[in-house]
Every structure is written in structure tokens, then in C-alpha cells.
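Field notebook, page 492. I keep forgetting to write these up properly, so this time I am using the form the group agreed on. The chain and the ligand, fe (ii) ion, are recorded exactly as supplied. Prediction of the bound pose follows.
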Amino acid sequence: MVDFTKQPADKGFFAPIRFEADVYDCEVIGKVPTDMNGAFVRLGGDWLYPSNFKDDVPFNSDGYISMFRFKNGTVDFKGRWVKTERYQKDLAANRQLYGYYRNPFTDDPSVRDPEHPNRRTVSNTTPLAFAGKLYTLKEDGLPYQINPKTLDTIGTHNFDGKWHSQTFTAHTKLDPVSGELIAFGYEATGLASDDVFVYTLDKAGQVVHEARFKVPYVSMIHDVALTQKHVIFPVFGYVTSMERLKAGKEHWVWDSSKPMYIGILPRGSDGKDIRWFKGPERCMVHTCNARTEGNRVILEAPIADSNQFPFFASIDGSPWNPQKARHYIRRLTFDLSSKDDSYKEEIIIPNQSITDLIRIDQRYLSLPYQYAYAGYNDPNRPFDEARAGNLKGRVQNCYGRFDLRSGKIDAYFAGDSHSLQEPYFVPRAKKGAEGDGYLVGVASNFAEMRSELIIADAQHLEAGDIARVILPFRASSQVHGIWVDEDQLPFA
Ligand SMILES: [Fe+2]
């Protein structure tokens, strides 16, 4: 018997859905482009059983993968739990056996295993399609492999035993020039360990290179950035320790006294020559893009001044500051010929704060580029406050295309009863000019209490959407989504 009245999950639009779904030939408003063949694959969390802790965080909900499958102008929808070891053990016990997010010391004795914290992953953050396989990723565990046709869970994957980190990032980087995948794991040798292992996988999905280094302090390294010559690792504010985990506390706490460190690792290095730069308190969970120009490494990212997550406490007990949690797109420039460890920071789009779920045309990753895409809230647009319910105050009613050279913003407005989840840019063809393609993303329609997949022309966002794929229910909430071309995975 499940009782959700005492657990911390969202109410209203993002209340747990707890069902698997198949919708064939979905209702569409408008016309789905016939040159979009493949799938928009989303991953997020949905609570199978309520958390045991009122102050647990949404990152601890069970992985749920869904797919909008596009074929010649029609779209099918499929949603499945990621059937992790944890999901299966909970279901067998008919209750939540696991404790806080990333703290195995708070688990039920029947499953408690602090030596192997990766076994309790919920695998709920980013889908990955690589070398003909589909995976679900979360940074505290190994990837789960998923059947791309059925979305059934196959099991964990360790790349023929050549992946030596206990963990695998949710943010891999595909080099569009070489076809290599750069991936890493932090807390690589166990809970609160300061080891980071970095891997290069070739086009066939084989591990071909490993680097290892230690961080200045143990921190959340959720995302990195890639250039043609370097991999860039941010270390900032969120801290942890074995002491706090053994004391039964949440994994992360924000320490505003910690400087941000940026590690720049030459690609192909074994890790010994990583160079650390140091700056003031900042929060940079996601990156946008980066490039190496001569002796300079240039990184663009949505960056906040301080703790962006209201649900992670401050180590000094100070209250969460929503002003300091706002993200602006900033450019950091690192001079590799300099003798000191400082870097230059500029805010390049100062007139609009954004969500940090930012995307680019992936064909331009690690290369010079012009556009970034992200959701944001425009308070000057019409808004149906009465219907917003629990979404009030965290509505993203626009997708913006941000021109990082001119500062111009082109906006797509979703409607007065809609909030937008992360956008994804889908190129019209394998090769072509940057930005020629579609912007897709799921809107939460809180007037109709249903989810809608938006498809817009990325070069004409002001014109509104080309099509909306309608689901007759609230889809489970998404962290990240990806577009997968028809020929990337064996869908049939
Ligand atoms: Fe992420």
C-alpha cells in the first residue's frame, strides 16, 4: 500500500504518474515535418515509492525514460520505468528501501552497501545514444542499457570491464570532428573520494584512453566542456565528506567560502598535467560550449553567483538567495601562457537570466559557434496565474535563441498556460549551416493538465510552433532529452 501524503514529491502538475504508457499515432495540432525521422528521447524521475525523508531532493526519484518516435510525419509515444536494481528491490519489498539522495548510510539494512554506492543509482538524468546503443545516465552510477525499440531495461554496462570509475557522468561530449565520445566519472573510487577518471571512447564504443587526476576539493562535477584540444572541469560550492554522510545527512551542502576552480586537461594527457585556475564563488552546473584559440581556452556557460538549488542547504545556515541563483550566460577566458591562476569573466547576455538547461547545435560542439538555446520566463507575456498552481514562480514561458555574438534574443512563446522544459536543437540534415533545423521540447499545459511536445523552426521562433504533439496526460517530468536520428539506433 502506497501513501504519498507524507512524501516530498511535487503536487499538481508534477505529482508522480506511476504508470507506463504507449500512445500510438498521437494527436497533433499543426503538421509534423516529414524530414524529422528518429526520436526525441527524454529521461527524468518519477517516484515509484515515496521518499523516507521529507527534505529529500527530486534528484532521488526513480528513472523514467520516454520517447516520442517520429516516422514520416506521425509520432508514437512510449514511457517506461528504468528498471534499476533499486527499482526492482523496492517493488519486491512493496516499499522504499533507500534513503537520502546519494547517502547509502541512510538505506534500509537489507540493501545498505556504502562500498558500492553506484548500485543504488536511479539512472534518471540524461539519455545517451552512442555506437548503436541507448543508455540512461546518472552521475552516481554506471549507465543502464535500454532497448531502443521497447525501452525495456537491459542492465548496467561497464564497457567490457575497461570503465574503472564507479561512476559515469550524465554529460558526455561527442566530438563532431573525430566521432569520439569523452566521458568521465567523479567520486570515481568511492563515496566522497577526490578521484576523477576521464575516458575517450572510439566510434565503435570501445574505451581507448584513460586519464586520472584529483580535484582541489570534492564537489559536484555535473557537466564539463570540450574543445578540440582540452576538456574543462568545473569544481565549485557543493561539498561533501564521509563525516556528513556517516552522520546521515544529504550528500551536498553549499559552502560559499569555496572558490570556483576550473581544471583544464589537455586531451590525450594521462591527467598529470591538468592545470587549475581559480576564481570567486560561482555555481556552474551546466556548460554551453568551449573552444581553444591559440593559448586561450574560452568557455561559455550559464553561471549563477551562488547555490542554484533551493533544496540544498548552506553550510553556514544562511537562507537560499533567489537573486544569486539566477543564471546569466557568461564567458570565461583562460590564458594558458599566463603564470598565475586567474581568469577573465564577462556576462555576455546581461539583460536576460535563463534556466541553466542550455543547448547548442551539437554539430558545433568544441568549435566556434554563434547560437545557444534555453528556456526563460518573460514576465511581460500573458500568464494565467490562477491556473498555474504549484508551477507558479517557476514557469519558463519562452524558448530563446541567444546570439552570443550580437546579444540578440529570438523568442518562442508557449502560451499563457504553459511552462517549458529543456529545449533541444534538431538539425535539418547531418551537415549544414549552424542553427538550420528545429527546436523541440515538452510544454506542461497546466490549463488542460497535459503535456505537449513543441516543434518550432529554430530560425523563426517568433513565428510560433509548426506542430504540437498532444499527450492526453501529464508526462513524467524531464531532466534532459536528446534527439536521435533514425540511423543512430536499431529502432525497428
Ligand atoms: Fe544536467
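OBSERVATIONS:
- The radius of gyration is 21 Å.
- The longest strand covers residues 62-71.
FOLLOW-UP: compare against the apo run.
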